């Protein structure tokens, strides 16, 4: 019997009783009937349920004998709705996963940033070293933003060129070193209040000296004959202190030496071969001239840096020259080193050009847990008893040092090997140019050198170094005069 006919006939004769609608389905019982439609007939038709499902859009389930219970609630079958539900479920899961990942990334970044800030504040505390850090970072950003110029540097005026070949630097640009350095660059001098008439007077003075070699030689002879008074070096030559000197020819004067706090000293001594160098204010030294540290005096050196509040170190010597040690390696190549109670941590090292590089340190006092930032400017190509190849390179170096130091009142530490020849030459140049920048009406370079030698013996050791100082000052004065409104 056709399944459709069975159902239609049964409905007409009211064979199905107890009919109920359950969701989209109809349930019923088969009663006795004259057509002898039995439960078996219904079951037989249910076995061919696919045609019924297609015709009536019902999902057919099996029933039992009269009085049995349906064990599964029939539902309407829809392939389209099932697919939509699956797609929505997958999309929802993906959205939830995306939100969780984004939240995790944001949390990690904020946590890392907060941790770094907390660590930095913990290290620096309220010390003024933070200013040095900001200055150093700004210095690095400005340096890296400078593109090497393809133009040859502008030649100095013919008036100065006729005097000395060192007044121009028209040679080929210095090639980058194997360590990934950046070629040399120039920077305009800082704003100067130099008196124009004084500047021209200085240029005339330099021209006369550099043209007249005999006059320069006589002036140098007079400087060599100069004797400082007082000049006792008793403290530095004592048995316990003599071993702390690189050379007995350059020892700090008794009346003009840096003294360390004995209670913080590694050797229970207040001696270090270092001299305060005053300019116009005897209460506040502008520089500390010192020798390159020895292995036994490294802790004393960092103690001096700490106790004098220094934030800038100018190093004018390579560590080794022609197989001879010029200075002990007093800083870590990486990480940190502990020197007595002072921990030195290398923060960064930048090779600015072939001639010099810049290092930044965190200096921590392990007794007080205070931390400061110290910047070291290391000039690499100035050999002992000699002069740099060009004035321009040293002037570029000096501008960078002073840009980092600007606005501070602490002394600049300057050292070479013995703390006299190259150290004295650099301080002489810097002191004269600073005086001129402040508007000084009279400048006597020879008298300024005598003033330096009153405070430390042997400052500027050769005639070539003195002549180089004159040439360098003249070159910078010429550049400043060009920049001034005419």
UniProtKB/TrEMBL annotation:
This is Protein tyrosine phosphatase receptor type N2. One of its GO terms (cellular component) is transport vesicle membrane. One of its GO terms (biological process) is insulin secretion involved in cellular response to glucose stimulus. GO terms for molecular function: protein tyrosine phosphatase activity. It comes from Poecilia latipinna. Residues 395-467 form the Tyrosine specific protein phosphatases domain. Its main location: membrane. It is a single-pass type I membrane protein. Residues 216-476 form the Tyrosine-protein phosphatase domain. PANTHER family: IA-2 PROTEIN TYROSINE PHOSPHATASE, ISOFORM C, RECEPTOR-TYPE TYROSINE-PROTEIN PHOSPHATASE N2. It is found in: Cytoplasmic vesicle, Secretory vesicle membrane; Synapse. Residues 147-191 are annotated as: Disordered. PROSITE patterns: TYR_PHOSPHATASE_1, TYR_PHOSPHATASE_2, TYR_PHOSPHATASE_PTP. Residues 170-186 have a biased composition (Low complexity). Keywords: Cytoplasmic vesicle, Glycoprotein, Membrane, Phosphoprotein, Receptor, Signal, Synapse, Transmembrane, Transmembrane helix. Residues 158-168 have a biased composition (Polar residues).
